[in-house]
User: Fold DUF1254 domain-containing protein from Vibrio agarivorans.
Amino acid sequence: MKKTLLTTLLMTSTVAIATDYDHAPVGNVTWENYHQAESDWNFLGLQEKVGVNEWLHAEAVSPEAQTVIRSNRDVMYSTMIVDVSEGATFHVPAENNDYFQIIHIMDENHLVHAVVRRGETLTLTADDLTTGTHVHVLARTRIAESIEDTKRRQSLLSIKANSSKPYQGKGFDADDVVGYRLKLINNVMKHGAPIEGLKGFGATLEDVEDHHFKYVTAFGYAGLPATTAQYLERVPGQGETMCQEWTIPTPNLDVEGRGGYFSLTTYGADGWIDSERFYTSGESMRDNGDGTVSMTFNCGSGEVYDFEVSEGWAGVLRLYEPVNVQETLDYMETLRGIQIKPL
Assistant:
């Protein structure tokens, strides 16, 4: 998924939504059809690489292997465009598959957002979609034990489609789609347009609020709904390079049933990974024995939870499979008030 920004930039805001942001058309891409144009851009881009009903398995993110800023080190991605016009079945096996793995499904409106988890099977036809006959699939396989074992688990993913007609583009100009996407991103970055991911992902248009729906599509196409994953877009107090520590409560995630987990990834000021010590999972953070865990930054301890960061660095905390959505949203608000402390 080659994008300018990722889902990790989705923000929760209580700022009132203004009506004077720049939503002027770019070519034939308009506010009204942008979500379809963005989907079209993604569907066609993937289909051009591997065709229809065929997997594209990505490699693990590293300082040497990055295709987008704020890359996600937690998982390895597998993507596919699937023809469901005559039905297709999606399955994630549970046998010999002990870690988090899902198939995430979106239609041509960037809606549906069905998630198939380990041990689950889902059959879809065009009647189950809000529009069209094809879906964009983004499977996520947690990286654990080894890259070889992760690839083995990627191979377990099963999608069986009863037809293989190619997706037909809607006639949008690719440069216009990118131009409109950047317009919405600029509205947020320079003019403060709010984004609430919870209001931007849904099964139908009735489940989303239009403003958040369009901006979520621009910032986080193919992002997961809050019922499956939530993100803290910045570490409070990030950016300094002295030895520091961040201590946070352990989140309430469905570890046993759905393989839930959390992690922290750090990036340079430009959003790219710029060190070898840029990631750790929650299991590897320092357990303080009191319901909290800690991470350190530039402390030279050699511990797996000690990050190497540069001036202006930024961090993203990712949480998968919350037990309770609202509880986790409240937890995120708590984290926004917990500052890093110098040691």
Observations:
- The first strand starts at residue 56 and ends at 57.
- Residues 106 and 227 are 15 Å apart (CA to CA).
- The domain at 229-342 is CATH 2.60.120.1600 (Jelly Rolls).
- The chain has two domains: 19-225, 229-342.
